[in-house]
Write a structure and sequence with these properties.
InterPro entries: Sporulation_SdpA. The protein is α+β, with helices and mostly antiparallel strands and 197 residues long. The chain has four helices and eight strands; from the N terminus they run ββααββαβαβββ. The chain has helices spanning 22-43, 54-64, 111-123, 139-144; strands at 6-9, 18-21, 80-87, 90-93, 130-132, 148-152, 162-171, 184-195. Strands 3, 4, 5, 6, 7 and 8 form a six-stranded mixed β-sheet that branches. The longest helix is centred in the N-terminal third of the chain and has 22 residues, at 22-43. The chain starts with 5 loop residues before the first strand and ends with a strand. The mean pLDDT is 83.
Length: 197
């Protein structure tokens, strides 16, 4: 059985059919794949793939298709802000995340989402005193030597009261993931004696 060299379009009336050569469809598909590949490659960071004329295409791709992957996801290199609370003389994580755990009703309880806003409100007050962790790889060791300030938590349902802190955690670069057992390292911390209404 021989394959047909044309594709018949059946959207036309029954008496009138249009024959489209398969080579045209293959050529058009290949052209679109090349355009998509160049567009995607121009927005990706430097990598091992290098296409001919890629630098010239980047300027045109930015004008014709002004979009980037950051629209869909945040950068994995941005720091995260982890809340901590002192209980019984020791520091413990006060994070209500991950959102999908059973204590959050598998994501239905939105308290874990509001904690990020609460942390942002604390960090945007005037009396934030950051303490650099330097070479310290332990969050608790960094929290122990941090300077303590006083503040009020304006959140309607506060989760950080009493001696509380926020640690700025920088992700370990993916290329170095085997060199450290931790996923994040502390950069700096802010510690408060928080009054809750």
């Amino acid at each position: 059985m021989r394959l047909s060299k044309t594709i018949r379009l059946h959207s036309q009336p029954p008496g009138r059919r249009v024959a489209v050569p398969v080579t045209w469809v293959a050529a058009l598909t290949a052209a679109w794949l090349v355009v998509c590949l160049y567009t995607a490659q121009s927005f990706l960071p430097r990598n091992t793939v290098s296409l001919p004329g890629q630098d010239g295409v980047k300027k045109a791709a930015t004008v014709i298709a002004p979009q980037g992957w950051a629209f869909f996801t945040k950068s994995a290199k941005t720091p995260q802000y982890a809340p901590y609370r002192m209980t019984g003389g020791t520091w413990h994580s006060a994070a209500l995340t991950p959102h999908s755990r059973p204590s959050n009703a598998f994501g239905l309880d939105r308290a874990s989402r509001s904690q990020g806003i609460e942390v942002a409100l604390l960090l945007h007050q005037e009396n934030v005193r950051w303490t650099s962790c330097g070479e310290t790889r332990s969050v608790t060791a960094c929290l122990e030597r941090a300077e303590v300030a006083g503040t009020t938590n304006a959140s309607p349902d506060p989760s950080l009261c009493g001696r509380s802190a926020v640690a700025e955690m920088r992700p370990v670069p993916w290329a170095w993931r085997h060199l450290s057992p931790q996923r994040h390292t502390p950069e700096r911390v802010a510690v408060w004696d928080v009054e809750c209404p």
